Amino acid sequence: MSNPILKITMVGPSRVGKTSLLAAMYKELERELSEVGATFVPDVRTQPVITARSNELKLLGSGTTLDVSNIVSIESTQEKREYDFILSVKLENSRTEKLDIRFIDMPGGWYSGDVRVDTELAESNVSIWVVDATALMEQPEEETNIGKYHTVINDPETIYNAYQRAFAERRTDHFIVMCLVRAESYVRKNRQNEMYQKLNKSYASLLHQLKQQTPTLGTVEASYVETVGNIIFHTFKREKNEDFPHAKFMKLQGKTYSPSGCAKPLRSVIAYALQQSLSAKIIETDKTIKNIDHAIEAVRRANTLWNNFWGTLGFETALKKRIKYHKSLEFKHDELINIGEGLQHVLEKIMDNKKPSDYFTFNL
């Protein structure tokens, strides 16, 4: 019997870098989890795609000379893609507990009203809402102090409307992680708080409306990443065939490809996955304990002279059946406790790595 799949939708407009972010997040979190006895591995279908995207990022960030470069030139997603990973937690008895995690990446243009986006969002447990930090921060308008191109590049209203449609009939919790990408210039100048302030100013009212209409919306958390690391913002430029401008960056002399903080959004997602799995194991353990109590009572009732007599002759009596069932429940209970302790251990280690200063939580 296969494990239930934790579905995560990568949300954002076209060319914001959703797939690139996933590639960078995976590599960094993979190293972090290996230190706590867990693995996070793409399946055979996902591995080559993620590896190729990682290699493209390395090439874009390679070199040591100053060079105005289009760091967002990687081809955007043209159709729905699914990326499957397996999170494995080592247990004390040399077994592993596995959690299946699927990332769903759809073209940014679909968020304007494609029913496929609404369906995927409605069925997802978590979504990572990707926001271009340069559009939010650069060339701020006098009235709002928000970047001149934020609305056209990040398109917050369109994404909000997609969430609103998807959550109209939702009855289960949904966790949103907002991720500011291309944040290198602002981290370098210690402007992280300014990024969060502008993010809050731009999105808080939309998220509050969404929470009012969808009480099952859970926490909305934000973090920033440096997907390439050795670049700073240079300018916005619009090519002849483009509808709106995109950011261009300058490589830092003497610096090589050095992504940073990419595990932060995925760390939150994995922590959520572990919490959900742990809660399910706790519920299952409680049910097993109740069943053990019932089994003990059944053994007591079946422990008669008649059953004992036929049992000595080798017959499968009611007493033997009850004892066998009781032993299987005790084995299941011990196994659930072992799994729960393993999940709890990894969860605690991940939470230890979640520095409060690296995250912003919206007040909804």
Brief overview, please?
The protein has 364 residues and is α/β, with parallel strands linked by helices. The protein is built from eleven helices and eleven strands.
Description:
This protein is of the alpha/beta class and 364 residues long. It folds into two domains: 5-279 and 353-361, P-loop containing nucleotide triphosphate hydrolases (Rossmann fold); 280-349. Helices cover 47% and strands 20% of the residues. The chain contains eleven helices and eleven strands. The chain has helices at 18-34, 47-60, 115-123, 133-137, 150-154, 156-166, 184-188, 192-213, 263-302, 305-312, 318-352; strands at 5-11, 38-42, 68-69, 81-90, 96-105, 126-132, 174-181, 217-224, 231-237, 246-251, 360-361. The strands form two sheets. Strands 2-4-5-1-6-7-8-11 form an eight-stranded mixed β-sheet, sandwiched between helices. A three-stranded antiparallel β-sheet has the order 3-10-9, with no helix packed on it. Helix 3 crosses helix 6 and helix 9 (263-302) packs antiparallel against helix 11 (318-352). It starts with a strand and ends with a strand. 37% of the residues are buried. Residues 64-74 have low confidence and may be disordered.
